[in-house]
Amino acid sequence: MSGDADLSGAGTGSDSGADAADLVHADATELAARIRRREVSAREVVRAHLDRIDEVNPRVNAVVSLDPEGAMAAAAAADERLARGAEVGALHGLPIAFKDTHLTRGMRTTRGSPLYAETVPDEDELLVQRIQAAGAIRIGKTNVPEFAAGSHTFNPVFGVTRNPYDLGRSAGGSSGGAAAALAAGMQPIADGSDMGGSLRNPASFCNVVGLRPTPGRVPSYPAWNPWDTLTVPGPMARTVADAALLLSVMAGPDPRCPVSLEAPGAAFRELPARELTGLRVAWTPDLGGRVPVDAGVRAVLEPQLEVFRQLGCRVEEDCPDLDDAEGVFRTLRAHHFDMALGAVLDESRDDLKPSLVWNIEEGRRLTGADLVRATAGRARLHLGAVDFFTRYDVLLAPVSQVVPFEAGLEYPAVVDGQPQRTYIDWMRSAYFVSVLGAPALSVPAGFTPDGLPVGLQIVGPPRADLAVLQVGAAYEAATRYGRRRPPR
């Protein structure tokens, strides 16, 4: 281990009757229930998490733009509301730091860019509104890569977010600050977003849970392109049940988002146990031979197949058709970057990292025919996935092709002996799945001999988010890898 900080929770102080170390590592569902029963106050919970941030964030650098005074005032108001007997939401009293790409009224939203370092929005993004309306208390923001580009969290505004399991390693990205804050006990729930793995990769790196929902499950507003289904917001947590709880608040239709699904989020409020006997499971260690995967990742994941067999599942090696997933994703991603950030490139090229400049310029080289081919190719891949899931209930695959890499790198240059030429090459095991339009869950799946976390990706049929969560919860209960806290 290159880090020597004690992040286990011992020594966290609190002036309340509740044990602070217990509060900062408690499941969100349990913590919310204790607050509603008035066994612990929102002020005690928020104070314990703020103390935890003071203790470990200087070394992890996950939470930015912290507002302790505002958080404590909101916690006091939450306690007063409960004392009056008023109805409270599912997240009442739970602290949360929002991803620093999501708009927060009255609090900086920097996007990890010096161009927005002092930008304070005058409105909350829809998911921020929903989470706060459910009673969650805003304590700050979580760190992101510059403009959320790439799966390693570093930027010129706040610096590098470090992995709580090894401070010399990456926490992943782009929701890297969110994942690291969860793992280190700085918040019990976290929001994020995922285009090519930005919820799943950091969850894998930090031994937490991240769900890329079916596109439209969690609506986006405002959005530069309301028809976009490649980028999706979603929940992160330390347990599958906690992720489902947060999803229940985030999900549900909104007329301003034309792709939003009609199903209400309340369906995810409770996560009933599911018997897995007879479950048809496909396993692909390398997405049908399409991606290199480091031996360390394979060594952790391959034994997990026996867990599913012991749970009564039928496991076979198989993979959906992912031919041209590479071209489809890269084309649509490049177009997205050009449309969203092209004007920024024109005005401030020198203020953008080279990888971001490259990705925007890739978009500028595209033709209308390129976009039509990519859209048609994505439709074909989606239909192939629908057919694949008539034969299988879930697909298991690596979340990331590598274990957490050195924090001083921009990205791993080699994966299993194969050179990675751009900052997104090493993310294929996540972004090939993105183009299918299917829900994908990252759940803790074990550790390398050096103590680095590895996540398992559980993919289900489009719109089968609940089933994916149930399978993940059954696996989680059988293995309990997510209960292992960051070491000294």
Attribute tags:
alpha+beta; eight-stranded mixed β-sheet; three-stranded mixed β-sheet; 15 helices; Amidase signature (AS) enzymes; disordered N terminus; 15% strand; single chain; 488 residues
How would you portray this structure in words?
It is a single chain. By secondary structure, this protein is of the alpha+beta class. It has 15 helices and 17 strands. A hairpin with a 2-residue loop joins strand 14 and strand 15. Helix 3 packs antiparallel against helix 4 and helix 11 crosses helix 12. The radius of gyration is 21 Å and the shape is globular.
CATH top level assignment: Alpha Beta
CATH architecture: Alpha-Beta Complex
Rg value:
21 Å
Mean pLDDT: 96
Number of helices: 15
Strand order of the largest sheet: 8-10-9-16-17-13-11-12
The number of distinct β-strands equals 17
N-C termini distance = 9 Å
Main sheet overview: 8 strands, mixed
Write down the domain tally: 1
CATH superfamily: Amidase signature (AS) domain
Structural class computed from helices and strand pairing: alpha+beta
Helix percent band: 25-40%
Cα shape: globular
Give the low-confidence spans.
1-5, 9-17
Strand content: 5-15%
CATH fold group: Amidase signature (AS) enzymes
Task: Summarize the entry for a quick read.
With 488 residues, this protein is of the alpha+beta class. It has helices at 20-25, 28-36, 42-60, 68-83, 126-133, 176-183, 200-206, 240-250, 295-301, 304-310, 325-348, 354-364, 368-388, 428-434, 465-479; strands at residues 63-64, 95-99, 137-142, 154-155, 159-160, 162-163, 166-170, 189-194, 209-212, 232-237, 280-283, 314-317, 394-398, 414-415, 418-419, 440-447, 453-459. The strands form five sheets. An eight-stranded mixed β-sheet has the order 8-10-9-16-17-13-11-12, sandwiched between helices. A three-stranded mixed β-sheet has the order 1-3-2. The protein has a two-stranded antiparallel ribbon with strand order 4-5.
